[in-house]
Amino acid sequence: MRLSGKVAIITGGTFGIGESTVRLFAKEGAKVVIAARNEAKGAKLVDSIKAEGGEALFVKTDVSKEEDVANLVQQTVETYGKVDVLFANAGVGDMQDLDCCTLEEWNRTISVDLTGVFLCNKYAIKEMAKIGEGSIINCASILGHVGQMSVSAYAAAKGGVVNMTRAAAVTYASQGIRINAVCPGYIDTPILENTPSEVIDQLVSMVPARRLGKPEEVANCVLFLASDESSFVTGANLLVDGGYTAQ
Ligand SMILES: NC(=O)c1ccc[n+]([C@@H]2O[C@H](COP(=O)([O-])OP(=O)(O)OC[C@H]3O[C@@H](n4cnc5c(N)ncnc54)[C@H](O)[C@@H]3O)[C@@H](O)[C@H]2O)c1
């Protein structure tokens, strides 16, 4: 198993890419800490993983709140003794043009998609430094690399995650902590559920692979970055986009 003995925190772990990664990590031998807001879904997922012989803990967490993130890391260490891996995955989408985006809407997206990633990195790094190793994978997006209409705050946040990841990778490499980003393209998850089907069709037509990605296809890349197989990889942006940004 590729994550045997590792303790992994996954934020936004109850749906979509996060849930697929939780299930994959548990199968690969990790003790998985699921950080999300939906307690009922979290409890169900923990039961399902334990029923399959895995180990998991749910900690109710809003990643935009510092006290919640501090508690998440503390609960992880109290339960499993350390933090080896963080997948800072929680995120929200937006569909706003800049001239219509209210300050409240802007702050809501930035507080989850950028500040939430910062807070999780901050508290995980403190624990990883104690054991002299760790792997952090931040969830950015193709929209951290290229633009698209009507996603102003989201693109700003994801661009921030991309470059924060590089700066943090450089800062903590000598302490044995690797920090990378995974940058999904259009993936078939609940985040797209309010996107009209004609818009989805249009997006798919722009993807060289001519389809949406599957959450499992992102989870497989996160697993590689979490495992020792990527031991000399840090500061990288792994694009998982069916060729979208290569055009
Ligand atoms: N699906 C895509 O097409 C796509 C493309 C590029 C990037 N991404 C990124 O992938 C990540 C996962 O997205 P997904 O597609 O699985 O979406 P999703 O909506 O299925 O999952 C997002 C998860 O984040 C959680 N979350 C949201 N706000 C939170 C908060 N404040 N605190 C804790 N948890 C919170 C949600 O409850 C949910 O579990 C996000 O960062 C998203 O921006 C997705």
What is the element layout, followed by pairings?
Blueprint lengths: L6 E5 L4 H12 L3 E6 L2 H13 L3 E6 L5 H15 L4 E4 L14 H29 L2 E6 L12 H21 L4 E8 L12 H9 L9 H12 L10 E4 L7
Parallel strand pairs: 1-2, 1-4, 2-3, 4-5, 5-6, 6-7
Question: Could you characterize what this model shows?
Answer:
By secondary structure, this protein is an alpha/beta fold. It has a single domain (7-246), classed as NAD(P)-binding Rossmann-like Domain (Rossmann fold). It is 45% helix and 16% strand. It has helices at 16-27, 39-51, 66-80, 103-131, 152-172, 197-205, 215-226; strands at 7-11, 31-36, 55-60, 85-88, 134-139, 177-184, 237-240. It has a seven-stranded parallel β-sheet with strand order 3-2-1-4-5-6-7, with helices on both faces. Strand 2 (31-36), helix 2 (39-51) and strand 3 (55-60) form a beta-alpha-beta unit. Helix 3 packs parallel to helix 4. It is globular, with a radius of gyration of 17 Å. The mean pLDDT is 97. Nicotinamide-adenine-dinucleotide is lined by residues 11-12, 14-18, 36-37, 61-64, 89-92, 112, 116, 139, 141, 184, 186-187, 189-192. Nicotinamide-adenine-dinucleotide (NAD) binds at residues 11-12, 14-18, 36-37, 61-64, 89-92, 112, 116, 139, 141, 184, 186-187, 189-192.
